[in-house]
Amino acid sequence: MKKLTKIALTASFVLALAFTFSCSGEDGTSCMVDPKTDGSGYDVICGGVNVGPLSNGEKGEPGATGANGEKGEQGEKGEKGEKGETGAAGVNCAVQPKAGGYDVLCGGVNMGQLSNGEGCAITTDASNSAYYLITCGSTSGQLAKAWCGATAYDPAKITCNNGILKFSFTDNRDNKTYKAVKIGEQIWMAENLNYNASGSKCGNDNEYTLSYANTSICNTYGRFYDWATAMNLLPVSICNAIPCASQISAKHKGICPDGWHIPSDAEWSALMQFVNPDCSPASTCADAGRFLKSVSGWYENGNGEDKYGFTALSSGFGDYSNFYDFGKEGDWWSTTEYAGEDEDDQAYYRYVYYRSDRFIRDYNGKTALFSIRCVQD
Q1: What angle do CA 79, 85, 91 make, to 5 degrees?
Q2: Within a 13 Å sphere around the CA of 325, how many CA atoms are in the beta-carbon half?
Q3: Buried/exposed code over 248-261 (b: 16+ C-beta within 10 A; e: otherwise)
C-alpha cells in the first residue's frame, strides 16, 4: 500500500470546503472530515481509518495594554506685571538754632523763623488745598500734601493713577456729578456734558430719532447741542447763521458749569499736541484718537487705549430730528467759528471715528447737534 501524504488542515479551511475533500492516490483512497461530538474540532477519516484529529484554532490572547500617552508640556509662565511708580519722597523738617531763636527748615526750604518761646501752626492753604500752610512766627511757607509726578495734589479730593490726576465734581445747577482729568496743563471733563439746556436733545433708545426728554443714552453719552445753544447765545437762530465771534470771550462759559468753559480750537490743539507732540497746531492728529478713545463701546471693536483718562465716547451726532452713527463716531464743538468766505454758518469741531486712530479737525454747519466737553478755567 502507498504511504499516505500527511495533510495539515485548519478548521476554517475545512469549513470552506463544506467539510469534505477527496485526495486520490494510486489506490484511490478517499478522505473526509467528521465533526467531533463535543465541538472541539474534527476527525480526519481516510479509507475508514481515523488518521487524526483537527482541533479548532485556539483563541488568541488579548492584546497587550497600550502604553500611557506622554505627559503634555507645562505652559509658559505668565509675564510679571509692571512695577508701580515710586511714591514721592517725604519731606523732613528740622530746626536750626540761631541767635535769639531758630530757623525752621523743611526739605531745604526755610519755612520761617521762631523766636524763643514761639511755635509753628500747620493749616491747609486756603488758596490751594493741595498744600499745607506752615506758619512759624511771622513767616509762612507751603508744603505739598502729595505729589503726582510734578503736580501737587490733595489725596482727600483727587486720585493719582499712573501719573494721571483724576477727580469728580458736581454741577450745582442740576447736581449731576462728572469725572475730570488733568492732561498736560489742562483739566478736562472726562464725560460729555448732560445739562438739559433749552434746545438740547437726546438720542432715543433703539431708534435713530431725537428727543427733548432725557433718555438712558443721555445718561451715558450726554446731550446734543447746536453751536449757538452750546455757546448760550441768543437768539440761537441768528448766531447759527451769521458770525458771532464778538460775543465769544477768551474762556467762554457757554452752558458749562461754573468754573468751566467750552474749549476753543486752540485749546483742542493743545490737547492734541500733548497727546502726540508730533502733531502740528490746528491739524488732524495721528494716534490721538487711539490714545483718547474709550476702551469699549466702539463699533467693530474700533476701541481706543484711553491712555490719559479722557474717555472719548462714540455718542454719534444729530440734526433737527435724526440721530446718526451711534457707536461709530464722537463729535465735539469748539468756540471758534470758521472764517472762510461765504461760510458764516460754520464752526470748528473735533471728531473721532471707529475706523481711524486719528483725532480729526474739521468745520461744520452750526445747526448740527454735537457733544460738549468742558475745560476748567
Answers
A1: 155
A2: 17
A3: beebbbbbbbeebb
Question: In whole angstroms, what is the distance from residue 265 CA to residue 262 CA?
Answer: 10
Calpha distance 228→239 (Å, rounded): 6
Which class for 312: exposed (0-12), middle (13-18), buried (19 or more C-beta within 10 A)? buried
Which one, of 172, 180, 194, lies nearest residue 257 by Cα? 172
Q: What is the pLDDT of residues 130-187, one digit of tens each?
A: 999 888 877 788 888 999 988 899 999 999 988 899 999 999 999 999 999 999 999 9
CA angle at 94 for the pair 89 and 97, rounded to the nearest 5°: 160
The pTM score is 0.69
Please compute, for residue 203, the number of CA atoms within 13 A of its CA located in the half-sphere on the CB side.
23
Set of cell numbers at residue 100? 535769639
**273-286 mean pLDDT:** 88
Give the three-class secondary structure for 97.
strand
- Please work out, in degrees rounded to the nearest 5, the angle formed at the alpha carbon of residue 296 by the alpha carbons of 292 and 301: 100
User: By the 8 A CB rule, do 227 and 347 touch?
Assistant: yes
- For 158, list phi and psi in degrees, rounded to 5: -130, 150
pLDDT of residue 114: 66
Cα 212 to chain center, whole Å?
31
The amino acid that residue 335 corresponds to is: T
CA 276 → CA 11, 280, 284, distances in Å? 90, 9, 11
Q: So what's the pLDDT on residue 39?
A: 67
